[in-house]
Amino acid sequence: MGDTDVTKKPAAGLLGIGQAAQELGVSVRALRYYQEMGLITPSGRTTGGNRLYAGEDLDRVRRIRELQTLLGFNLDEIRAILKSEDRLTQVRLEYRAASDDVDRMRLLLEAQAAYQRLRGEVEEKVNRLTAFRDELDERLARTERLLGDAVAHTS
Questions:
Q1: Rounded CA separation 26/28 (Å)
Q2: pLDDT tens across 3-51, in order?
Q3: 3-state DSSP call for residue 5?
């Protein structure tokens, strides 16, 4: 039986891979690939071994898609971003549980460094996009000058 087998009803609150893919607007293949890349881990499996996805899993895929489409990050960059975000979530939990000011300070410094790294990655992407936009603006201006010259010669 494959992951698209719908004869078995998923556990309460969990979606089979086909249902999850449909809900997310991605292919089953994409979900499998995200798992192979280490970007997601299904919350469970059926007794037959089929992948099952919880709401948190769907949110993570939405985040991956957002980073891909909106910000233009590739999957390797996304893996690094998600790893940082996962660690920051853990740092928040550890901070709340910490009773020692030294531990809290260490965690705050770790969080600060992680946020600075993430900001640096975004800044690098913005700079590359800005350079590309500027190059397009130059080409557009050159094309418009040539078009203006061509119109003037045909008049």
A1: 7
A2: 444 434 556 689 999 999 999 999 999 999 999 999 999 999 988 888 9
A3: coil
